């Protein structure tokens, strides 16, 4: 019985080692293809492209010149001071130059086309997509999950290179209890192959992943829904916009009005800019399928602590505000201890409710490094090799 259990244990260890090695090779191949063919991965947080590409899908995209765009292509377009949008091309026209094209787009699940055409020189075309895979990427990007994977990689490296003396093995361990490959001896090629696994997984996970949360705030007759990536807003990179959406509704049978105001406080030197748009229904990937208007022109947000009215609505309506927040690319403001805090206030029906995305700040030089997963993987390899090397030297000294 003990012989069989021991054999199964050795088989499982070897299988895990080979699985990690194969996964590492696949990741390295994908990273290499990304550099050679200029491909990247994008995640779909909403269902505007359903059922073709449902929410939670992970898609592979490649940059192409605008001259190659065809009607029916699903492409990602960069937008100034706003997040990129991925929809299907409905028309293509010549632009002001030989390389520019004017395109219109529409989400498969949307009733109407996007409100404005896009003038583009390059776009990213969707090559393939896998439903629900984005949820797995988000899960893998969780710091706790990454910590467990890093520790597991360290344990596998240690086991793969742990010194083994064949003379110490019992005769039963030399028998082929299972018709499957044996695990490595003292640093075989399988062990060497394992070295690429944690490094490759670190490369694959090196890009930060959005973590959009949805918070509901209620007060009497009023309700607010705040949707955004608080971590991304806390470390804005110059020129890279982040979106925040706030929905306001009222539960009131009597006629009345709800006023929606914005208050900003904090570090004016941060240079926070915004475009604020209003819609009578929830925004989907930056699109309003109802009536939309702009309530704050592109420009700096006042942070003097004064409430400024954005819009108003009747208690029978609902209003969704979409904030595109960004810092100027040439932002060189002196950093202080204060960040910026925005608050949306809704007042009406005798109630007042407030929503805030939390502190907004710029990405510090000492902030989160996207290469941190790669560094963790390299450290796990180093730790495993050091531990195995120490064991080897200790065994030599005690012979």
Cα radius of gyration in angstroms? 27 Å
CATH architecture of the largest domain: Sandwich
Q: Biggest β-sheet: count, sense, barrel?
A: 7 strands, antiparallel
| Number of structural domains | 3
Order of helices and strands: HEEEEEEEHHHHEEHEEEEEEEEEH
Helix content: 25-40%
Helix- and strand-based class? Answer: alpha+beta
CATH class of the largest domain: Mainly Beta
Low-confidence parts:
168-196, 203-209, 364-370
What name does CATH use for the topology of the largest domain?
Answer: Immunoglobulin-like
Helix run count: 7
Bulk shape:
globular
Mean pLDDT: 75
Can you describe what's shown?
The protein folds into 3 domains: 2-33 and 135-206 and 372-397, no CATH class; 58-130, SH3 type barrels (Roll), CATH 2.30.30; 213-360, Sandwich (Immunoglobulin-like), CATH 2.60.40. The chain has a 7-stranded antiparallel beta sheet. The chain has a 6-stranded antiparallel beta sheet with strand order 8-9-10-15-12-13. The protein is α+β, with helices and mostly antiparallel strands. α1 crosses α5 and α3 (143-161) runs parallel beside α7. A hairpin with a 2-residue loop joins β8 (213-219) and β9 (222-228). The relative contact order is 0.15. The protein starts with a helix and ends with a helix. The radius of gyration is 27 Å and the shape is globular. The protein has helices spanning 2-37, 133-140, 143-161, 189-194, 196-204, 230-233, 372-397; strands at 39-43, 58-65, 74-79, 82-94, 101-106, 118-120, 122-130, 213-219, 222-228, 242-250, 257-266, 273-279, 292-300, 304-314, 318-326, 340-348, 351-355, 359-360. 27% of the residues lie in helices and 34% in strands. Mean pLDDT is 75; it is low at 168-196, 203-209 and 364-370.
């Amino acid at each position: 019985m003990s012989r069989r259990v021991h054999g199964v244990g050795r088989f499982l260890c070897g299988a895990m080692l080979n699985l990690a090695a194969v996964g590492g090779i696949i990741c390295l191949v994908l990273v290499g293809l990304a550099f050679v063919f200029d491909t990247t991965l994008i995640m779909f947080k909403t269902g505007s492209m359903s059922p073709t590409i449902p929410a939670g899908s992970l898609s592979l995209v490649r940059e192409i010149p605008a001259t190659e765009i065809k009607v029916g292509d699903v492409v990602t377009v960069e937008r100034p001071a706003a997040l990129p949008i991925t929809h299907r091309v409905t028309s293509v026209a010549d632009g002001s130059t030989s390389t520019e094209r004017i395109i219109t787009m529409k989400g498969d699940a949307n009733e109407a086309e996007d409100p404005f055409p896009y003038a583009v020189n390059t776009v990213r075309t969707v090559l393939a997509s896998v439903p629900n895979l984005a949820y797995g990427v988000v899960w893998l990007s969780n710091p706790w999950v990454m910590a467990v994977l890093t520790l597991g990689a360290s344990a596998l490296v240690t086991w793969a290179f742990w010194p083994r003396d064949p003379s110490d093995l019992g005769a039963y361990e030399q028998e082929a209890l299972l018709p499957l490959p044996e695990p490595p001896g003292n640093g075989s090629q399988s062990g060497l192959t394992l070295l690429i696994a944690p490094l490759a997984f670190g490369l694959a996970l090196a890009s930060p992943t959005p973590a959009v949360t949805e918070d509901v705030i209620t007060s009497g007759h009023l309700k607010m829904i705040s949707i955004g990536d608080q971590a991304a807003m806390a470390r804005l990179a110059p020129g890279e916009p982040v979106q925040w959406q706030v929905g306001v509704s009222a539960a009131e049978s009597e006629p009345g009005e709800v006023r929606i105001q914005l208050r900003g406080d904090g570090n004016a030197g941060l240079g926070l800019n915004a475009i604020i748009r209003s819609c009578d229904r929830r925004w989907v990937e930056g699109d309003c399928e109802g009536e939309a208007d702009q309530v704050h022109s592109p420009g700096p947000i006042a942070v003097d602590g004064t409430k400024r009215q954005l819009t108003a609505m009747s208690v029978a309506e609902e209003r969704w505000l979409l904030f595109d927040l960004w810092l100027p690319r040439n932002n060189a403001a002196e950093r202080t201890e204060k960040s910026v805090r925005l608050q949306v206030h809704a007042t009406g029906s005798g109630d007042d409710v407030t929503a805030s995305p939390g502190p907004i700040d710029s990405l510090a030089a000492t902030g989160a490094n996207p290469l941190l997963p790669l560094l963790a993987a390299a450290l796990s390899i180093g730790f495993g090799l050091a531990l195995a090397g120490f064991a080897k030297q200790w065994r030599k000294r005690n012979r």
